[in-house]
Amino acid sequence: MKREGFTLVEMLIALSIFGMLTAAGVTLLGVSARTQETSDRLLAEVGETRRLGALLGADLALAVPRVHRDELGRPLPAFAGGARSPLLLDLVRRGWDEGEGASLQRVGYRLRDGRLERLSFPRVDGGGDPVAARLIDGVSAIRLRYRDDEGEWRDDWAPTDPTRLPTAVELVTASETQGTIRQLFLVGVPQR
Q: What distance in Å separates the CA atoms of residue 149 and residue 166, rounded to the nearest whole number?
């Protein structure tokens, strides 16, 4: 009598092969998930850097030589940066839409608890709490330099003329995740 089917040995071999294929599939799936997580994290970091470059580039390109006042009415220079300024950068820019046409806006940049933030002030002159927007986390060091009209780079921007703007700004950020990144921006690019 002839029997159709598999022997026990054949079944064990088939189950062993199926088990190895399943283990390989699970391992591959785990590697794919970790790769996707790493990819998402790296893309987010690149996105932070690009967002910083876009915002700072726009703010600096639209900078205007407009002296503004603090909450006590004291005049502040049109552009401030460096050790003498409470913010990394403090400037007035054009091109902000308040709903009734283009206007001026005061913006600033600061480093707080390893986080680079952009501050938008409610008014150009006077007080008011600024709105802070997080740009980059995990910043361990930051350096700004300012290029003057003669082509010299300065660590501080404090000209005798309070309406004078630098021609360019160099920003160097260092973070554990992204390393050191150097960016250059033109200031007050003329309108066409």
A: 7
Give the burial string for 135-167 (b: 16+ CB within 10 Å, else e). Answer: bbeebeebebbbbeeeeeeeeebbbeebeebbe
**What is the pLDDT, as a whole number, of residue 100?**
54
Cβ within 8 Å of residue 122, ≥6 positions away: 128, 129, 130, 131
Q: What is the model's pLDDT at position 98? A: 58
Instruction: Assign 177 a pLDDT band (cuts: 50, 70, 90).
Output: confident
Q: Which of 30, 80, 101 is CA-nearest to residue 187?
A: 80
> What is the CATH number assigned to the segment(s) 52-186?
3.10.610.10
